[in-house]
Each structure stands twice: as C-alpha cells, then as structure tokens.
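Example record

The entry below shows one chain as it appears in the dataset: sequence first, then structure tokens.
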Amino acid sequence: MKKRKVRILVAIILMGIVVYVSPPIMFVKGAPILGNKCSSYKEKIGKKIYYATDFENFYILNLKFWEKLEIERLFANENHSIDVEKKLPVLYTIKHIPNENDSYSFRVKRMTSCWYFDYYANPNSPIWR
C-alpha cells in the first residue's frame, strides 16, 4: 500500500513538472506541430514541411491554462484576420479558410515567452512529408 501511494505521488509531481515546462502545441488534423522559440526562429526560416489542406481548424493546446495566450497571425494583410476562440481552458481554435493561403505563421505569446508556428499547406501533400 505504501509503494502505491509513493508511485501516485511521484506521478503527480512528474505531471506537474510537465505542465509547468510545456510550451504551447499546435495540432492540425491530429498531428502535433511544435513551435520555435522566438530566439531561435531565424534559424528555422527556409526549412519547410508541407502538409495537407483538408481540415477545418488549427488547434493550440496550452497546458498552463492559468496563463492567457495571445495569438496573432504574421505576414497577413488586413483581409486575412483570424478568429481565435477559446473552446476549453487549455484549448484555442483558429478557423482555417481553405484556398486562402498556402502559408500560415502564428506568433503565440504567453506571459514573457513567445513561440512561432509555421504551417505550409499543399493540397497534393499527405499530412507528413
């Protein structure tokens, strides 16, 4: 019985650590896309992975639900504004408009931290390539 309580306590502590250090994660069609920290974003420019376009929403998971996310779309003109909707305390959605653009870049800020998410769409591409 004592071993079980210790295991439960260790599991709770590990889950707390994971939640505390986790960055936001973007999900598109079930596949996770990890963002780049703002400090290392310039190193990643030009490294494109093409994805499919048949989905309805971008989903951003924020395990630190007590900290609000600020999401903005980069490299878009005024006609391409985004609607960010908070579905759950940990889940934000951004509506995808098919055939609008083939490149989506988002800046996600949480308190003093910042991440960039890029999504390059290609209608003839499978989800991973």
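Notes for this example: The helical segments are 2-21, 41-44. The beta strands are 25-28, 31-34, 36-37, 50-51, 57-61, 69-74, 84-88, 91-95, 103-110, 113-121.
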